[in-house]
Amino acid sequence: MVILCGRSNVGKSSFINSFFQNKIAKTSSTPGKTRSINYYMVDDRFFIVDLPGYGYAKTSQKEREYWGKLISDFLDFALPDIVFAFHLIDSRHKPTTLDEAMKNMLEKKNIEYKILLSKSDKLNQAELAKTKKEIKLFAPYLKYNENLVLYSAVKNTGRKEVANLLKVFY
Asked: How far apart are CA 3 and CA 25, in angstroms?
């Protein structure tokens, strides 16, 4: 099982649709639409699991706490079956304290992960270089080139890299 985690509106559903080259995940310009844990079977061999996004400001504190507990409980329950995680971060924004908390949760549970910088097509080269530096500060111990994927669902940038990585596990 491979999990996708990240903030609301980071592009997890767009990633799924781009990766599978099929519109199977509902996308919206309104954040916070994924409110459940969604499983997608890959070649009858393994699941990619889309976790609810975190950090959507227009939901109640109670609902945000529920989503946080749902994610934490899922990770505890599914831990033996999780082989990898993609932590999606919008390339246009600095990682937040909630991204830091997710990163820490993955590390505490010893889940191997890559940071997938989504929406990379929306930045020019100078902006991408700045974003990469910010990610290096956010996660300095990650092998920088090996643990960072620039991804664009629009241009399919990074799709081949993701597919090749998944072949290693499955």
From this structure: 15
Q: Which residues of 33-64 are buried (b: 16+ CB within 10 A; e: fewer)?
A: bbeeebebeeeeebbbbbbbbbbbeebeeeeb
Tell me the pLDDT tens digit for each residue of 13-44: 999 999 988 888 877 666 555 568 999 998 89
* Backbone torsion region of residue 112, taken as left when φ is above 0, otherwise alpha when ψ lies between -120 and 50, otherwise beta: beta
CA–CA distance from 97 to each of 20, 137, 162 (Å)?
Answer: 31, 13, 26
The end-to-end CA distance of the chain, in Å, is 10
Taking CA atoms, 167 is separated from 45, 67, 121, 163, in Å, by: 11, 30, 25, 6
| pLDDT tens per residue across span 103-151 | 999 999 999 999 999 999 999 999 999 999 999 889 887 765 678 899 9
What Cα–Cα distance (Å) separates residue 73 from each residue in 35, 53, 78, 140?
15, 15, 8, 28
